[in-house]
Automatic annotation (TrEMBL):
Reaction(s) this enzyme catalyzes, per UniProt: [protein-PII]-L-tyrosine + UTP = [protein-PII]-uridylyl-L-tyrosine + diphosphate; [protein-PII]-uridylyl-L-tyrosine + H2O = [protein-PII]-L-tyrosine + UMP + H(+)
Statement: the UniProt record of this protein carries the keyword Iron-sulfur: no
HAMAP family in the cross-refs: PII_uridylyl_transf
One annotated GO biological process: regulation of nitrogen utilization
Domain HD stretches: 491-607
Keyword terms, alphabetized: Hydrolase, Magnesium, Multifunctional enzyme, Nucleotidyltransferase, Repeat, Transferase
Native source organism of the sequence: Endobacterium cereale
Species classification: Bacteria, Pseudomonadati, Pseudomonadota, Alphaproteobacteria, Hyphomicrobiales
Protein name in the entry: Bifunctional uridylyltransferase/uridylyl-removing enzyme
Region span, Uridylyltransferase: 1-374
Activity modulation notes: Uridylyltransferase (UTase) activity is inhibited by glutamine, while glutamine activates uridylyl-removing (UR) activity.
Enzyme Commission number(s) from the entry: 2.7.7.59, 3.1.4.-
PANTHER family tied to this protein: BIFUNCTIONAL URIDYLYLTRANSFERASE/URIDYLYL-REMOVING ENZYME, BIFUNCTIONAL URIDYLYLTRANSFERASE_URIDYLYL-REMOVING ENZYME
Family: Belongs to the GlnD family.
């Protein structure tokens, strides 16, 4: 049984606990049920006090995570021993001394997290009695009554041995068996037989199975240790990986602790310290997580990262918050675990373990001869992996540290773990001389621009520590996370994934998703500069200054070192400085406003820059995380590209705007042929203003005309129409209703109540005083039938709210109640009002923390202020939203008065801070009375002050 430390031992007087239990047994002698009931309060108090003390000592930094886990394990041992002794002496004395209780799994290593299951093995003799089994049941019921989650098995030694042969999970559990109490000879028999009958000569089988199990677990977790909400127990580089290392070492080398691996020559003393520090840190994180949440929480989510960081003692530093510093340390520790895995695998190779038939992976390749690699005298091929000809390769020529990865890329080889161990131990050889070495930089550039798998090679260089040493600026962002819901990966992993995306584009893999860039990539004049820009675009994250500006400065220093000429350097510097320009313009600006296009074109200036920036932007968005890229963003970027291309090539003419609108109107009238009377063609073909005619495709104009005519024939005052678009990953909900200052606000509120995310809004007014608004919501289902049903539900919600059948404040409140309010993140709210971004409209940009109903409330405020919303552009970056509104006053003029601008800001701020309860209570129930429906051709009475919006 494990022994406690002095600080913890003082808490629990074991002798007194036994005396108290004995007193309870005496009082309730012969009454097991009463005895059990009386026992529970005492044991609960002991357990609660003990765990509170363990938490107190952990928070007071009296020992780290492992010591905390050992304290809880020791406490658990005492409770089990106390219950067992009671059962043997007073409940089932006829079974006394006949069974053994052993801890298995993590508990078997004498470590236990606060919320973890208790894994127990009850060992019975070969001829067991009913009393023995009942004694086990009694003990289990007491543990369950105390609230413990107990994983248990009741077996004989023979059953354990038989099942170990058949099931690798059971074999692993028994490998960790630790005797707690009872008949010790049974536990010893199991231990001896397990070593002799199971472990002997089966090392390769076990190792291969554990490594395959680890790989499958990693795949389920995203196959990266750099997820910003990692699983501390099961994730890559987490505690389970450390446990796997120890299982393998214990099984193959027969060691009882990691320190014995130093004597065996498997680990150096420095590597042992790394092992111990990594394990202690991960245990500390896990224990804090369990204490904070009160359960076995293994996912280090945003909700608890701040609290864990504070509990461990991290403080903010310039450019990095406390939680970001903590998470960077976390990811560096998980990287250390990966290094230790490679070192152990290399040692196993040297041991020449016997390969298991039919298995692939590390073990199956142990006994194969090496082969020469053409053109290389330093490296050889060992069963599909690059290996060193001798351990001194890197010391003789440090450039070989870069050449190693270059040759592996050229030859398409995996990496021998022993070679990676030598790489790791040779990192100190990467100094300024190597960084400035022309050959080393040429090799690196060749790796980066490789037509094969540059992302994979860069990732291996990063894992080995080479990339961060060779490019110190990159080393600063290794394992750096950004505390936001938008970014799924650490900065270094994001950059490497961006290179992955560029490589896939280069190979033409995204033809269906990105038809434009698939066509543009072969025309790129400078492929090398583009790859460098993609790798470096976020290299200055984590600094106090703007990362685009700082990144451009870093690039200006690095590009000549890499061997880029002045023209290439200037392109890379410009791309990094402006790498957010195209994304933000496309998502937050009105692309139908000519000023948007002219301003963007003035900053881009050339087609070469435009093409490179488009490709960089796509790579950047795709590398943020799963689900961040969608077809709607692609459509916006394509529209911006095509409009800018026209302007840069001289094809954009303001003078033709009126003529183009007239031609569009005539085309619509001509297209309304089958089933249309001459009167209807004239009425419905000429009811739109210039913005509509210039921005809406003819097919959609025809569809809208039919929709409006059908609505009028049905005598409806309002109607909705839905359409899915799988390519753009959006669903269109078109609303026809009497125009009203609050119309967009009510529609947005209805969409929020239906649980839909608005991506954009196209707002138009017909010349008979009605609004034709198309709301674009993010697609949720891949199947069109499912998405149409969802869209129909949203459409009905909009109609019910507009008609007054449902009250907007109530439906939004109901939705907000069902959706957990995000209190983890804070976004400083800001309002920007500009008259320079459009020739005709004032642009109001709102940035704040997202929540249910926000858009509805913001647009309600703008309506209260008598502002006419021409278009709205809704962009969400995780927890942050940036909403942009193009507005005029009630007579179609810009908002130029400074006092009025200040008033707009003052009215918006309470809504952005979620404080405007008065506004919420005043939100209208609808704009159309449910009955009676207006007759065909009539204009509904909107009431005093509700005149139609004036469109210019």
């Amino acid at each position: 049984m494990a022994r406690p430390d002095t600080d913890f031992e003082e808490l629990l007087d074991v002798a007194k606990l036994k005396a108290d239990i004995e007193a309870i047994a005496t009082i309730h002698a012969g009454k097991p049920a009463d005895m059990r009931a009386a026992l529970l309060p005492l044991l609960r108090t002991v357990n609660t006090d003990g765990r509170n003390k363990a938490r107190e000592l952990l928070e007071a930094t009296k020992g780290g995570g492992i010591l905390c886990a050992e304290r809880i394990s020791w406490l658990q041992d005492q409770l089990i021993v106390a219950i067992h002794d009671l059962v043997d002496a007073h409940v089932y004395p006829q079974a006394a001394g006949a069974t053994a209780i052993a801890a298995v799994g993590g508990y078997g290593r004498a470590t236990l997290a606060p919320g973890s299951d208790i894994d127990l093995l009850f060992l019975l003799p070969s001829s067991s009695t009913d009393a023995m089994r009942k004694s086990v049941e009694f003990l289990l019921y007491v543990l369950w009554d105390l609230g413990f989650k107990v994983g248990h098995a009741t077996r004989t030694v023979e059953e354990c041995i038989r099942l170990s042969r058949e099931d690798m999970t059971i074999r692993t559990a028994i490998l960790e068996t630790r005797f707690i109490c009872g008949k010790q000879s049974l536990a010893e028999e199991l231990d001896h037989r397990f070593d002799r009958e199971i472990v002997h000569n089966s090392g390769p089988d076990f190792i291969a199975a554990k490594l395959a199990e680890r790989d499958m677990r990693h795949q389920k977790a995203g196959d990266t240790r750099y997820l910003v909400e990692p699983n501390v127990k099961e994730g890559k580089g987490g505690l389970r990986d450390i446990q796997t290392l120890f299982w393998i070492a214990k099984y193959h080398y027969g060691v009882r602790d990691a320190a014995a691996l130093v004597k065996r020559g498997v680990l150096s003393r420095a590597e042992l310290r790394l092992f111990e520090k990594a394990e202690d840190f991960l245990w500390a994180v896990r224990c804090h997580m369990h204490f904070l949440t009160g359960k076995a929480e293994e996912r280090l989510s945003f909700d608890i990262q701040r609290e864990v960081a504070a509990a461990i003692g991290y403080n903010a530093r310039p450019g990095l918050s406390a939680v970001e510093r903590f998470m960077k340390h976390y990811f560096l520790v998980t990287k250390d675990v990966g290094d230790l895995t490679r070192i152990l695998c290399a040692a196993l190779e040297e041991e020449q373990a016997k390969p298991a038939p039919g298995l692939t992976g590390v073990i199956s390749r142990f006994r194969y001869r090496t082969r020469k690699i053409p053109g290389s005298s330093e490296f050889v091929e060992d069963r599909g992996r690059i290996a060193l000809t001798d351990p001194d390769v890197f010391r003789r020529d440090p450039v070989s540290l870069i050449r190693f990865f270059h040759v592996a890329d050229l030859a398409g080889l995996e990496y021998h773990p022993d070679a990676l161990k030598q790489v790791n131990r040779g990192l100190r050889l990467i100094d300024n001389d190597l960084r400035e070495n022309e050959e080393a930089n040429r090799l690196f550039l060749s790796i980066l621009t490789s037509p094969r798998t540059p992302g994979m090679t860069l990732r291996r260089m990063n894992e080995a520590g080479v990339l961060g040493r060779f490019i110190p600026e990159f080393g600063k962002i290794v394992a750096l996370m950004q505390f936001s819901m938008y970014h799924h990966y650490t900065v270094d992993e994001h950059l490497i994934r961006a290179v992955d995306a560029l490589s896939d584009i280069d190979k033409g893999k995204f033809g269906d998703e990105h038809p434009l860039i698939n066509k543009l990539m072969p025309t790129i004049e400078d492929r090398t500069a583009l790859y460098v820009a993609v790798l470096l675009h976020d290299i200055a994250k984590g600094r106090q200054e703007d990362h685009s500006i700082a990144g451009a400065r870093v690039a200006r220093k690095l590009c000549p070192r890499f061997g880029l000429n002045p023209k290439q350097t200037e392109l890379v510097v410009w791309l990094i400085d402006q790498h957010l320009l195209m994304s933000m313009t496309a998502q937050t600006r009105d692309l139908n406003d000519r000023k948007t296009i002219t301003d963007f074109a003035e900053r881009v200036q050339s087609m070469e820059r435009l093409k490179a920036l488009l490709i960089l932007t796509v790579c950047d968005i795709r590398a943020v995380g799963p689900g961040v890229w969608n077809g709607w963003k692609g459509q916006l970027l394509r529209t911006l590209y095509y409009e800018t291309e026209l302007l840069l090539s001289g094809g954009f003419s303001e003078s033709s705007r009126k003529e183009r609108a007239k031609a569009s109107e005539e085309a619509l009238v001509e297209a309304l042929e089958n089933g249309w009377t001459a009167k209807d063609r004239k009425l419905y073909g000429r009811m739109h203003y210039q913005p509509y005619l210039l921005s809406v495709p003819l097919d959609d104009q025809i569809r809208h005309a039919e929709f409006i005519r059908d609505t009028d024939k049905a005598g409806k005052a309002l109607a909705t129409m839905v359409r899915t678009d799988s390519f753009r990953a959006i669903t269109e909900i078109t609303v026809l209703a009497p125009d009203h200052p609050r119309l967009l606000s009510i529609i947005a509120g209805a969409c929020a109540a239906a649980g839909s995310n608005i991506a954009d809004a196209q707002i138009f007014t017909t010349n008979d005083g009605r609004a034709l608004d198309t709301i674009l919501v993010s697609r949720e289902f891949t199947d069109d039938a499912d998405e149409l049903r969802r869209a129909g539900t949203i459409g009905r919600m909009i109609e019910d709210v507009l008609s007054g059948k449902k009250r907007l404040p109530e439906v939004i409140a109901s939705r907000a109640k069902s959706k957990k309010r995000n209190k983890t993140f804070s976004v400083h709210p800001s309002v920007t009002i500009s008259n320079a971004l459009s020739n005709k409209f004032t642009v109001i940009e709102v940035e704040c923390l997202d929540r249910v109903g926000l858009l509805a409330e913001i647009t309600a405020v703008l309506s209260d202020l008598s502002l006419d919303i021409k278009s709205a552009h809704i962009t969400t970056f995780g927890e942050k939203v940036i909403d942009t509104f193009y507005v005029t006053d009630i007579v179609g003029m810009k908002i130029t008065n400074e006092n009025r601008q200040a008033s707009i800001t003052a009215r918006l701020k309470p809504v952005m801070n979620d404080q405007d309860d008065e506004l919420r209570s005043r939100m209208p129930s609808g704009i159309i009375a449910p009955e009676p429906a207006p007759s065909e051709g009539s204009t509904p009475d909107l009431g005093p002050g509700n005149a139609p919006r004036l469109k210019v």
